[in-house]
Task: inverse folding
């Protein structure tokens, strides 16, 4: 009878130990392990389950009530008829918390006791990352610049009553942008786990179901806004843009697999459709028929070529994942450094042509702004390229170069209303 009682006591101690470790109650773990240290080797039996019975020999050396114990402690429970031996060593406290401490303390952090406000902030952060902020900034800045240009050209026709329509149009563009980048993330989860593990779906911060809800909301909201406010022609352009964004990512089309088709889609959506569509819609809202102006022709052409540069350089940080999942891009075919030089060459050609346009068409452009601005942009590009050309096998350097390309994109739209 005494033997049975001791066995039951050992079993209860083991189950309690496992339970406390899983729940993160380390103080209780220390107390239980101090009790176990009374014997050099203890054999603990877990009550038989419906399928198996497991004996767990746990060898316990001298235990001290300090955090150094947790530096190497681990506990495994096998349910495959194997015997596991666990050893506890007294090591110095590591500089960084071991993974088991982070994992167990994370359970409590993610539990139901976590404040609702913190959960809401995490959801907000995940949704914002889902929208790919750098693309939102480009879309917003581009649309604002084109509207501003149209208003500058027709300043006598500005009506404050059109302000709501302008903001609704901007929201529709953001919805379209969110749909396109969102649908791409849904179908690129495995690739993003390699290339962009910080994205919310790949990181597990946003479920696929929630992502589908967001992209469906973006598509419906954008289409409704455009249909109700901007007429059938702009609606058809907007729908065409969503269609191109869909076939870019969604099987069986998945045009991103084909380098030429991929960069043509990006150049069309971000280059031609955005610039032409926003300018057309703004003039229509002012009651004017569409008419090209030299600055709008310039920015539409310039940004279309710039979008080509973005399309081929966006794959520079993604070479590892694209190769793993057999996504053919110019970066995987030609190499990172070659694509960096190719993209920079196209962009430099853009800047040179812009300077020449300002020189030979002084009546259409303000040369005092266009020439020095594009000279500075081109010199900064050359400096950035030469500064890091030897580091383009390093992920940080590649990502930094791609971010720099986007900064040049923002800068172009920033000066556009005034050229």
Result:
């Amino acid at each position: 009878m005494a033997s049975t009682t001791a066995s039951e006591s050992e079993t209860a101690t083991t189950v309690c130990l496992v339970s406390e470790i899983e729940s993160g109650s380390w103080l209780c773990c220390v107390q239980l392990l101090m009790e176990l240290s009374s014997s050099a080797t203890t054999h603990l039996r877990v009550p038989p389950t419906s399928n198996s019975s497991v004996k767990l020999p746990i060898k316990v050396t001298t235990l001290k009530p300090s955090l150094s114990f947790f530096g190497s402690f681990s506990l495994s429970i096998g349910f495959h008829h194997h015997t596991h031996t666990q050893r506890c060593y007294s090591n110095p406290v590591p500089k960084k918390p071991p993974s088991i401490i982070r994992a167990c303390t994370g359970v409590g952090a993610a539990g139901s006791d976590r404040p609702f406000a913190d959960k809401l902030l995490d959801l907000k952060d995940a949704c914002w990352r889902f929208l790919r902020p750098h693309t939102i900034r480009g879309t917003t800045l581009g649309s604002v610049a084109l509207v501003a240009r149209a208003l500058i050209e027709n300043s006598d026709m500005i009506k404050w009553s059109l302000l709501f329509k302008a903001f609704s149009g901007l929201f529709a563009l953001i919805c379209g942008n969110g749909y396109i980048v969102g649908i791409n993330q849904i179908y690129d989860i495995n690739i993003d786990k390699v290339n962009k593990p910080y994205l919310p779906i790949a990181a597990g911060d946003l479920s696929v179901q929630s992502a589908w809800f967001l992209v469906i909301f973006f598509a419906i909201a954008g289409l409704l806004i455009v249909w109700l406010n901007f007429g059938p022609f702009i609606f058809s352009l907007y729908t065409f843009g969503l269609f191109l964004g869909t076939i870019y990512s969604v099987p069986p089309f998945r045009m991103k697999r084909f380098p030429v088709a991929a960069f043509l889609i990006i150049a069309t959506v971000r280059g031609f459709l955005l610039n032409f569509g926003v300018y057309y819609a703004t003039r229509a809202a002012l009651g004017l028929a569409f008419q090209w102006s030299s600055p709008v022709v310039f920015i539409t052409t310039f940004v279309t070529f710039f979008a080509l540069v973005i399309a081929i350089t966006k794959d520079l940080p993604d070479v590892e994942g694209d190769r793993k999942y057999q996504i053919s891009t110019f970066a995987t075919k030609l190499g990172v450094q070659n694509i960096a030089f190719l993209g920079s060459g196209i962009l430099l050609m853009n800047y040179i042509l812009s300077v020449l346009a300002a020189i030979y068409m002084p009546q259409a452009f303000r040369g005092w702004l266009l020439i020095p601005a594009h000279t500075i942009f081109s010199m900064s590009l050359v400096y950035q390229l030469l500064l890091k050309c030897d580091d383009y096998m390093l992920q940080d350097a590649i990502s930094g170069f791609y971010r720099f390309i986007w900064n040049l994109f923002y800068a172009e739209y920033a000066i556009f209303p005034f050229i």
In short: The chain has a mean pLDDT of 77. The chain is about 65% helix and 0% strand.
